[in-house]
Every structure is written in C-alpha cells, then in structure tokens.
User: Fold this.
Amino acid sequence: MLRTEPMLRMHVLLLASETQDAALELARFGVFNPAPCGLDALAESPAAAYREAWLEAEARLSKLLEQCGNSGPLQLPADAEAPALADLQELNGWLKEVWTACLACHESEIQVAESRNHLDVLEDTLAKLEHLNVDLAHLLRADSLLALNIGSLPVTELKRVTEALAMTGHLVTRFDQLGEQVFAVIAGPRSRQAEVRGLLAQAGWRQLPVPDELRTRPQAARAWLEAERVRMDTESGTTCQLMAGLRERFGPRLHEARLRLALARPLAEAALASVRGKGGLTALSGWVPRRHVHALRALLDARFHGRYWLDLREPVAGERADVPSLMRYPGWLQPFIPLVKSYGVPRYGEFDPALPFAFAYLLLFGAMFGDVGHGAVILLLAAFLGRRFGRIAWVGIAAGAVSMLFGLLYGSVFGYEEVIRPLWQSPMHDPVRVLGIAVAFGVGFIAFTLLVNAGNRWAAGRTAAAVLDSTGLAGLVFFLGAIGGLASLVGVLDVALPFWLLAGAGIAVVAGYKWHEAPGGTGERIMVTLIETLEMAISQFSNTLSFMRVAAFSLNHVALALAVFTIANGLETAGHAVAIVLGNSVIIVLEGGIVAIQALRLMYYEGFSRFFNGDGRAFVPLRLGEG
Assistant:
C-alpha cells in the first residue's frame, strides 16, 4: 500500500488467428496493461484492419441505438469468443445496410418535424394578420400603385410616425398590440417608399414578412393550416409505424451486434501499439503485476493448451518511467485517493503518499479547527450530502470527527469553554506551548519527507543522490543536527555540541556533492555550490516554520469565538441568540474552508513537493464492456 505493485514486462506470442481470443482473455483477466511492443522482429500491425472495422461498426451501431433505443444491460457470456476479422467486416456491412434503411425513415421524421415548425411560424403570423380580415393577395400585389407595409413598432413611436407619414400621403392603421409593440398597416403611394423606409427605420419599425401561404383571406389561410396539420399527423403516424417495424425487425440482431462488438473491443483497443506480428505470428505486449503471473499462466493454458509462448521479465532501468503504477487501497482510504491523484500519480516504485496523507491531513485539520460543536456540524452536513458527493463526503465526515476529538482536548463546544472539561487545554491558555508543538510536528514531517525522498532515489537506482544530496540522507542529517543545536540554544535540550557537529558534517557532505555535480569552471562551481547549499538550509527551516500556521489557526479559532461572544453579549436576548447562531455559522463556513485549504497546502507544498514527482503513468488495464 505504501509503494506501487511490482510489475513484469510481458510478451505473449501466438498464432495470428487467435489474437482476438487472446486479447479477450486478457481483458477478462482484468490486470493486463497494454504497452508498445519492443520486439524488433515483429514490425507489422496485423490488428490495424481489425481496429478500423471495429471503429466503423461501433460508430454505426451507436447511431442505430440512438434511433432504435438501447436494448438494455449487456451480459457477456463467460464462454463467448471474440469475432474474427471476417466476422467483424460482415457485421459492419450489415450495420451499413440497416443504417441506410433507418436513415430514410429518420430523414422523414426530420422533414415532418421541420414542416411542423414551419406551420407553427405561419400560425403565429396568421394570429396577427387575422385582425385585418382582408384579402392579402389583393393588397400585396406587386403591380399595385398602392404600397403596403405590415409590421410593428414601439407604442411610444406610433403617434409621431402617424403624424409624419400623414404628410407624405400615407395612412397608418393599427390592428393589434403585443406588450409594448403595436402592429400596424401603412398604406400609401409607391413612389414615396424610399422616404417612408428611412422614417420607419428611425422609429424602430419591424417588417412582418407575409409568406405566400398566407396571401389570401385569413379564413382561407386558417383552413389551409388545419389541413396541413392533419396531413403532417398522418405522415408522422406512418413514419412512426415504419420506425416501429424497423425496431421490431432489427432489434434482436442489434443486441447481438452489441455483444459481438463488446467482445471485439479488447483487441481493437490493444491494436494501437501493443499488437505486432509477422506472417502467421502475433505478439501482445504489456505489463502485469508480479503477483498475478501464476493466474495468468493458468488462464492461458486453459484457453490455448500450450499454443503460446509467454515471456516475462523485470523492468530495466531505461524503461522505469514507462512502467504503469498500480496501487491497492483499503476501502476506508479510498475517499482520500482523489485528493492525492489531483497532485499526480506516483512513479513506478515511488512511495505512495495516500496513507500518511490521510492521517496527516485529518490531524492538521482537527488541530486547527478543534471544536466539538463545529466538528459535529461538519460531520452531519457531510453525511447529509453523501449521496451528492459520493465517497469524497467521507473526508468531511472524518474531518468532522477529528475536529470533535480535538474539541474534547481543547474543551470547546461552539466556542464555549465552560460546557465540558478539557482533556488537555485550550490553545489560548498556553499559546507558546502550542506553537512549540506545531513546530515539533513540522520537524517530524520534514524529516519524514526527506527520508522518503532518499528511499525513492535509492529505489530508482540513484544511490549517490539518495545518500549525499540535500534532499537525501545528508540533508536529513544536517536538518536534525541543526534542529538539535537550535533546541539546545533555547534551553529545550542540553547537547548542543554533538548536534552542531552532526549539522556541520551533513552540510559538508551536501556541499561536496553539489561541488561534484556542478558544471563549469572553478568560479562557477563555487557559486553554484554556495547558492544551492544556502538555499537548502534556508528552505528547510522556512518550511518547518510554515507549520506554525497550525498553532496560529487554532488560536484564531478561539479568537473568532471570543469575538462572536463579545458582539452577542452587547445585545438583548433575541439578538444575543441570533448573533451566536450567525457567528458560529460564519466560523464553520469561512474558517472551516480556510483551514481545509491550509491543511491541503501543507500537504502539497511542504510534503509532496519534497518526494512526490506525481508524473507517473496510471495502470489502465484492458477490460471488457461497452464504450
């Protein structure tokens, strides 16, 4: 759980005709991560045509299922075999024929829907023109000497436009109003239309287009619209019957097509890089956890009865960056994994920080936000929102519980320190001691990260850096020695000389390593060595002091509660209660959010950045199922 699982590089060589069955079995196996094949002798891509046929068939099937409806959950039989390339191509051809038949029906549905929308637009226009009760075909004749404009303008402009157009010989007739828009007909001599258009544009006139279907008397147009709707209903019913017939005709075989494409998916996905071959021989390449090797051999023996060759080896130094990382976590730790994964994925062989992260994060949150009442509210709120946020809500539940535990240590319930007797003491009673404990925690945390980083470098084969670098054992020796020397200066310890000697030895080793690794001439190497050694010493102590914020926020929590009580005590009974409730709500929401972020910051920047690269490859096994 603290490190990624050991992996083995795997090559399975078998007959090309059984490649799809091998990919299917590896997908059922569930712990095979495909990877590029490294066998130079196998330069061909025998599964490329298989993948292309599968992609085409999958795309056509998805479109058909959108039209015909999904046939429900897919159950893959345990003894089902993957289709061969010829079967897949035959299935793809059949799906093409079915899609052609369904496409015509689908286009008919689209045409009916578009016709309905057109009728709706005509209906809206007719509803406005019905008030005229005139033959629009006669009024809107192109050869008429009378020019007619039908449209709308703001009601505030009607009087001004009427008066202005009267001077040009035009008549304005109002026939409807919708909100602040007035619908009107403007009639006048065609010779002065350019002048009228300019005036109407200034008034915000909106021309109402009159379609050819409505250029008749409104009663006749209404009758035509009703007849068209009846015709559309008939066409729609015919189309629906045709589509229902297609569903009934093709439904069972579409379900079979789903099954066959799901069985073909493993090889189609592995074909990108991990399947190579030559002649009648094919190899599947990837990574498999070492603890599953015996199960893998048993699986292949049962399926291929010796018609295969399995090559397994340890990862070599040059390919460790490409090895996927697989971690196993207990159920109670799963809610914290997204918070770790948001920083990155551990490299193969690297220390997995999930477990220490969970404990340290909860410890920091509880120490900074210790209160029985506030923790209980967070716990209940997280439990209430559990269905919406899923497993991540358990982080809130755990944080609330730890906050309640520290509340018992501090003796605080919604800021009241007289309700229960503290198991330890309130931070406000001895702030110096609380600051000292926070710094001591920081020392232990920084020392832990240096030790882990040294272990990561050792596992990666960088022995010199693990022992001699500033973030390795030499840096740890300097850090602990300097901390011991400083503690002796302030009277906490009385062994200053051994610790200062230890610190001197540590920083001397670090400086020697920096000198050895620095490029360039003597002057440049001196400068690099001095700067990097000084930066190491400063950063270690500044990062340690960052943990003083743990004590600062625990004191701030008490101070905010005192501020709320001070305000409440100056109010009457009703105001006092309201101030207490609102003040505690602000503390829970505002300070609780800030503390949650600060605890994450300490984990990410003072912890993860020291030993966790976060640029590993996640283990993505080949699996069965639909896309």
